[in-house]
Amino acid sequence: DAKTTQPNSMESNEEEPVHLPCNHSTISGTDYIHWYRQLPSQGPEYVIHGLTSNVNNRMASLAIAEDRKSSTLILHRATLRDAAVYYCILEPSNDYKLSFGAGTTVTVRA
Amino acid sequence: DAGVTQSPTHLIKTRGQQVTLRCSPKSGHDTVSWYQQALGQGPQFIFQYYEEEERQRGNFPDRFSGHQFPNYSSELNVNALLLGDSALYLCASSLGGQGEAFFGQGTRLTVV
Fold first, then answer.
1. Do B43 and A101 touch (CB under 8 A)?
2. Do A43 and B100 touch (CB under 8 A)?
3. Number of CB pairs, chain A paired with chain B, less than 8 A apart
4. Contact residues for B1 (Cβ-Cβ < 8 A; gap 6+)
């Protein structure tokens, strides 16, 4: 399974941006980078994904390093509802499973 | 759109028994994947069903089996339950099996 490394936890203040790093030094050229989050007592929720270029959607932005060995999920203005475990996952083109690691637990302070 | 629905939400079974969990995918989706999530850990892939066939399987014993019906809904069956099978079982649906996956709320299975 393609491996990612994330910090165990991060804290943020409400209304401030959150930058969640992810290292994936063994990424191959056709691996997509996915981010999911899991709020307490819920199933995982898709956040964003990308291949090479930076991506934006209504939830977040994904910044991908030029060499693709790392990426950063950016929550532009954290709210209390953003408190969750965030998972960075590589999805190979020839693989159908999502390989979840331990993720980063994000705490948002009011 | 109801999204992905799973039933039941909670279940208690005795060691050695068999259990069936059910999943209805999001409207328009044709692929269903099942995951097991132990307390405090990330979800682990069990298998994926597409066109009523098991297309890919994770590292789970044969006690775990599944089925996909013509309407794309799916069942997960676990035989000879062990205490270690206690977990949250998640169903995810997608179109074609890759890209954005939608997860259900899960079924919490407790084996006593």
1. no
2. no
3. 52
4. B26, B27
